[in-house]
Amino acid sequence: MYFKLRFKIIGIFLLSSVYSAAQKQIYKDPKQPIEARVQDLLKRMTPEEKFWQCFMIPGDLDNVPKGQYSHGIFGLQVSAGNQGGGAAGQLLKYNASEDAERLVKKINAIQKYFVEESRLGIPIIPFDEALHGLVREGATAFPQSIGLAATFNPELMTKVSTAIARESKLRGIRQILTPVVNLANDVRWGRTEETYGEDPFLTSVMGVSFVAPFENMEIITTPKHFLANVGEGGRDSYPIHWSRRYLEETHLVPFYNAFTKGKSRSVMTSYNLLDGRPATANHWLLTEKLKKDWNFKGFVISDASAVGGANVLHFTAKDYDDASAQAINAGLDVIFQTEYKHYQLFIPPFLDGRISKERIDDAVSRVLKAKFELGLFENPYVSEKEIEALKKLNHKPLAEKAAAESFVLLQNNNQTLPVPANVKKILVVGTDAVEARLGGYSGPGNKKIHILDGLKKYTENKGIEIIYSNGIDWNVKELATISTEYLSSENKKGLKGSYFSNADLQGNPSYEKQDEQVSFKWTLYSPDPEKLQPDNYSIRWTGKLEAPDSGKYQLGLRGNDGFRLYLDGKLLIDRWEKLSYSTQTVEADLVKGKKYDLKIEFHENRGEANLELIWNYGRHNYQKDFNEALSLAQKADYIIITAGIHEGEFQDRSSLSLPGNQEPFIHEVSTLNKPTAVILVGGSAIKTTAWKDKVGAILDIWYPGEEGGNAVAKTLFGAENPSGKLPVTFPVEEGQLPLTYNHHPTGRGNDYHDLSGEPLYPFGFGLSYTTFEISGLQLNKARYSENDTIIARVNVKNTGSKEGSEVVQLYVKDLLASVSRPVIELKGFQKVELKPGESKSVTIEVPVKQLQFLNEKMDWIVEKGIYRIMIGNSSKNLPLKQNIEVL
């Protein structure tokens, strides 16, 4: 009896132990290996919960129905709005203005909900943009990326990145959707400003210097856009049909270095097609190359709304379900959308078998692994005490230093700069002197200093009078959209729109609605996708136009024609034939308060519709400002012209000239024979061909960040010496584009019949207020094996009268190769600071393996043969040369 009872008790104990072990949540045990925790958690997840770890959006828990996020989510880009109620109950309430403390509390409250109220308690990854500073109020805005590249100073980049990473982590951000390591191989591209330039080596060095500090602080970096986000004509997200050899040796290089050297744990795909397949659903790119060849263990996210591009843009998927399945099956791990409700479009193939369980588990495992690595399961919250540390940070001196080092002196005839000591009255012209533009993907800046403020501050108590006149504007618009207050129809504001399901206004309209104004871009869809085909519809708008004042007006239409305009029954504009984009205006005498019958007709039989009703009312009197500035220039001792460009995401440029009335003003001022310096503001090449010889100095300051005004002032007056170098090539004319320094040899010649093939300003170029001499090239030996390192030493001497910095640049040319190689390639550089008369020895090391390329069999090799080492201070000025042999 005793033995039976004892056996029964032991049995119960053993069953209880087995049951307890089965219930033990390994994924919550920090002592367990990460892989074991991932697999344990994965086994507990439903198919829906797995999907939500593959879905990311901007947003928060404001006004969210209870239980909406019980399944969890990959992460959120937390908005700046107030937090109250919603899924997490009464979390916290905040003031309207965003600050770091509020953001931390908000992220913590959101994290608390997911940890405590979602079924499995999986924390989120709070993510944000941080291209050249976290895009948040109070965060430091450093110079734009292209400016940071122009410093040619990776050590400075590391300091800047470390500062941004600290400001990000103390606010609770654990992933940044940066940097952009695409190559700017065509400077017409509107996103050139976001890059580190045209060269794969420079981009790699700067990219690694940027991502490494973030990853070391346990913030995931996301190099983008994978791959080659600029196509023919310098157009954003245009299809890419380049050879894999070219892609492997150029555009893929910075990504590979970011993953292997910088340890980036994520990557973002691009919008464009790559060899006929969307990059977001490109199996060769995401699986064969990235995950198999490179053994990438991180996760792949799409660009915002890019997955759906397969069916609404590329037409390689029949619907959103299909687009979702194609992308995940190709190797995408996380779908990035802009709204919560979009999940309905993409979740079906996760549940119905179109995506295999193995592929889903692989994607989810990559996300979970990152969350475990970040320590989010053990420490999901940010210590609010750390806000005090954040408040004590002062990165403004670093922002100013980075700005000053980024400036490139393109021209300095007659020593126009620095401003001579005898100058007493300076005229500053241009809206860019007071706008302090920061460039794309920027926060508001932290007490940003514009150029005029910087000049006034620097010259205070120096007996120099600073006069400002806006005079010119890069954003001159003489015709504007007619606003709704001047349009009416049937006692309602706006015009009555009748929409027809044919291209010739026949029959009854499919529907009618009141449009507040006529300013439309239907580039992806028709005005109503359910009722109208995108390539077969027409519209008639009718109503009244009321003139605010009496006088002569320029009245018209702007768009990709197929339009007519009637006023009081009279046909004034007739562009019914579909040709191109155009602006058509007529002069009309209008009387104040009188209402005129207005009719507009438009038809579309191809797609990509664009139409705007415009007039010249209310436009600024640009000519008056122009003339006023010219008058003030006659009385000034010295003239500083700030001139800028317009660019950005999906805002490519067909012309590289200065827009608006800026160039005419430069021409007019040049007739005064006054010392004139032009400050260029922009993130890409600017064509100075037509006016450069009419001014003394040209200083390119890119977008210099929140301390740009102080840095500009110190540079103009000589307290700082320009040391930046061009990370992109500036062409003489747009007809030379694309134009990069590291092109392959031509079969005939580089020149045009009517123009040289040479650039206006070459890659790596930049002047100084002093002069330098680079001499005495010495190599550690003449013959190398594949595992050796080329060590080049040169002597650099400051032969001028001012302290300054020079960038010694080392290029390589393969003299004879089995496959064509670039004419030259940057392989090393070193920035050195020297006092007047001072000399320093500079050493540049190049591992021989950096000479590798793809042979005819597409194998990476370091080919035996003769290579030419060339050293100088730009890609066009390479006076020191010596051949080496690789054995």
UniProtKB/TrEMBL annotation:
Secretion signal, residue range per the UniProt entry: 1-21
PROSITE patterns: PA14
MF-aspect GO terms: beta-glucosidase activity
Organism domain of life: Bacteria
Keywords assigned by UniProt, alphabetized: Hydrolase, Signal
Domain PA14 positions: 490-629
Gene3D superfamilies to which the protein is assigned, alphabetical: Glycoside hydrolase family 3 C-terminal domain (3.40.50.1700), Glycoside hydrolase, family 3, N-terminal domain (3.20.20.300), Immunoglobulins (2.60.40.10)
Annotated GO biological process: carbohydrate metabolic process
Family designation: Belongs to the glycosyl hydrolase 3 family.
Protein name: Beta-glucosidase
